[in-house]
Amino acid sequence: MSGGYTLLQLLIEEVSGEPFAEYVRRVIFNPLGMASAGYEWTTELQAAVATPYKPDSSAWPHYQFIERGSGGAYLTAADLARLVAASVGRRKEPAG
């Protein structure tokens, strides 16, 4: 994990006065329509997120990271496409 993003997470929490996950949901996920995105491993996400597998074909566990600023967000493929589209073209929907 990147220490710089962890510091950014702490700075956002200090300045905004709210937990990082709630801030990201309010400022990024909700405006982009990323309804399934989040930092908590919910039942809804479990049904929608792909399971990663190890080379021996056993499933990797889904970890919860305290350092949420540098990783730990759970996204569906559709939500990731929305985030990428907004990042590169200021669009709320993926092209095509």
Question: Which features would summarize this protein structure in a list?
Answer:
96 residues, mainly alpha
Quick recap:
It is built from four helices and no strands.
Describe this structure in words.
This protein has 96 residues and is mainly α. It is built from four helices and no strands. It has helices at 3-16, 20-29, 43-48, 77-89. The model has no long low-confidence stretch (mean pLDDT 84). The protein has one domain (3-89). The longest helix has 14 residues, at 3-16.
Provide the fold topology.
Layout: H1 3-16, H2 20-29, H3 43-48, H4 77-89
Q: What is the helical fraction, as a range of percent? A: 40-55%
Mean of residue pLDDT values: 84
Broad shape: globular
User: What percentage of amino acids are in beta strands?
Assistant: under 5%
Count of extended strands: 0
Order of helices and strands: HHHH
**First and last CA, distance:** 34 Å
Number of helices: 4
The chain-level structural class is mainly alpha
Radius of gyration: 15 Å
Low-confidence stretches: none
How many structural domains?
1
What characterizes the major β-sheet? Answer: none
